[in-house]
Amino acid sequence: MENIEARVKKIVAEQLGVNEAEVKIDSSFVDDLGADSLDTVELVMALEEEFECEIPDEEAEKITTVKQAVDYVTAHLNK
Amino acid sequence: MSLQGKVALVTGASRGIGAAIADTLAAAGAKVIGTATSESGAAAIGERLAQWGGAGMVLNVGEEGAIDALIDAIAKEHGDVAILVNNAGITRDGLLMRMKDDDWDAIMDTNLKSVFKASKAVLRAMMKARTGRIINIASVVGAMGNAGQTNYAAAKAGIMGFTKSMAREVGSRGITVNCVAPGFIDTDMTRALPEAQRDALVGQIALGRLGDAQDIADAVLFLASDKAAYITGQTLHVNGGMLMP
């Protein structure tokens, strides 16, 4: 779990060009980290590659915070 | 203008404008993949482009999943597409009063939907690369209209609107999206016109002659090059002064 969180935070920091320390578990990509809509699409693409999974568009739309991303990945990696 | 080492995909590269574009980009150093709708057409393109390290592949733009499969195959064999030229197009001319739904749908699928599909398919790699060139071949008809071509003009004008919107979406990632709008170019498509109609058309052209496929290819080469890095969302009209929008 912690491992996944760390990996997600690292990707978020890389994709959005922010310092990793700024990326908190409750951070919202758009409201807190300054992402635009295209950034969020790219972020999902990066998560798909990191965790070797495919996130359907309707699920991807619901991933707007670091916590939601961690929860999604955790739930789907355990399957 | 060197395109050394870049992979370029040109749809509809068998003849006419598409063939000239494919050859021109290849001569500038790009590894060009040209598509045709038949195996024999693809083989002929392959023979033509082989001297520059390019290849011909089959693509029926209307076929479900065909474009995605092609982009994947190109990425595996040659690398990610850095330059996409959406050139493939057909005509189904006729007066609106007599136009069948099929004539409309065929044009929309082949001339417009294919642009959406191919552009979407190459976008992921271009976003990651933070650079890319998409050049859509529109038509003067999309800007000025032409009796007997409501379907074709609608699709070509649609391409221009698509181009502007996509340019706004992906500009922040260093990807440019532009149109080249040919006027009346001496190709099989325009040779099919009746003599009287051709003469009337030439009368409207400031330079007093039909264009050559190479005129279009040179404009595409410019937009594909690093020299055009600050141009996006534009339609470059190459029509001998037939229309000055």
Automatic annotation (TrEMBL), chain A:
<dbReference type="InterPro" id="IPR020806">
    <property type="entry name" value="PKS_PP-bd"/>
</dbReference>
<protein>
    <recommendedName>
        <fullName>Acyl carrier protein</fullName>
    </recommendedName>
</protein>
<keyword id="KW-0276">Fatty acid metabolism</keyword>
<dbReference type="InterPro" id="IPR009081">
    <property type="entry name" value="PP-bd_ACP"/>
</dbReference>
<keyword id="KW-0275">Fatty acid biosynthesis</keyword>
<keyword id="KW-0597">Phosphoprotein</keyword>
<keyword id="KW-0444">Lipid biosynthesis</keyword>
<comment type="function">
    <text>Carrier of the growing fatty acid chain in fatty acid biosynthesis.</text>
</comment>
<dbReference type="InterPro" id="IPR006162">
    <property type="entry name" value="Ppantetheine_attach_site"/>
</dbReference>
<comment type="pathway">
    <text>Glycolipid biosynthesis; KDO(2)-lipid A biosynthesis.</text>
</comment>
<comment type="pathway">
    <text>Lipid metabolism; fatty acid biosynthesis.</text>
</comment>
<feature type="domain" description="Carrier">
    <location>
        <begin position="2"/>
        <end position="77"/>
    </location>
</feature>
<keyword id="KW-0963">Cytoplasm</keyword>
<keyword id="KW-0443">Lipid metabolism</keyword>
<dbReference type="Pfam" id="PF00550">
    <property type="entry name" value="PP-binding"/>
</dbReference>
<keyword id="KW-0596">Phosphopantetheine</keyword>
<dbReference type="InterPro" id="IPR036736">
    <property type="entry name" value="ACP-like_sf"/>
</dbReference>
<feature type="modified residue" description="O-(pantetheine 4'-phosphoryl)serine">
    <location>
        <position position="37"/>
    </location>
</feature>
<comment type="similarity">
    <text>Belongs to the acyl carrier protein (ACP) family.</text>
</comment>
<dbReference type="InterPro" id="IPR003231">
    <property type="entry name" value="ACP"/>
</dbReference>
TrEMBL record, chain B:
<dbReference type="InterPro" id="IPR036291">
    <property type="entry name" value="NAD(P)-bd_dom_sf"/>
</dbReference>
<dbReference type="InterPro" id="IPR057326">
    <property type="entry name" value="KR_dom"/>
</dbReference>
<comment type="similarity">
    <text>Belongs to the short-chain dehydrogenases/reductases (SDR) family.</text>
</comment>
<keyword id="KW-0276">Fatty acid metabolism</keyword>
<keyword id="KW-0444">Lipid biosynthesis</keyword>
<keyword id="KW-0560">Oxidoreductase</keyword>
<dbReference type="InterPro" id="IPR002347">
    <property type="entry name" value="SDR_fam"/>
</dbReference>
<dbReference type="InterPro" id="IPR020904">
    <property type="entry name" value="Sc_DH/Rdtase_CS"/>
</dbReference>
<dbReference type="Pfam" id="PF13561">
    <property type="entry name" value="adh_short_C2"/>
</dbReference>
<protein>
    <recommendedName>
        <fullName>3-oxoacyl-[acyl-carrier-protein] reductase</fullName>
        <ecNumber>1.1.1.100</ecNumber>
    </recommendedName>
</protein>
<keyword id="KW-0275">Fatty acid biosynthesis</keyword>
<dbReference type="InterPro" id="IPR050259">
    <property type="entry name" value="SDR"/>
</dbReference>
<dbReference type="GO" id="GO:0004316">
    <property type="term" value="F:3-oxoacyl-[acyl-carrier-protein] reductase (NADPH) activity"/>
</dbReference>
<comment type="pathway">
    <text>Lipid metabolism; fatty acid biosynthesis.</text>
</comment>
<dbReference type="InterPro" id="IPR011284">
    <property type="entry name" value="3oxo_ACP_reduc"/>
</dbReference>
<feature type="domain" description="Ketoreductase">
    <location>
        <begin position="6"/>
        <end position="183"/>
    </location>
</feature>
<comment type="subunit">
    <text>Homotetramer.</text>
</comment>
<comment type="function">
    <text>Catalyzes the NADPH-dependent reduction of beta-ketoacyl-ACP substrates to beta-hydroxyacyl-ACP products, the first reductive step in the elongation cycle of fatty acid biosynthesis.</text>
</comment>
<keyword id="KW-0443">Lipid metabolism</keyword>
<keyword id="KW-0521">NADP</keyword>
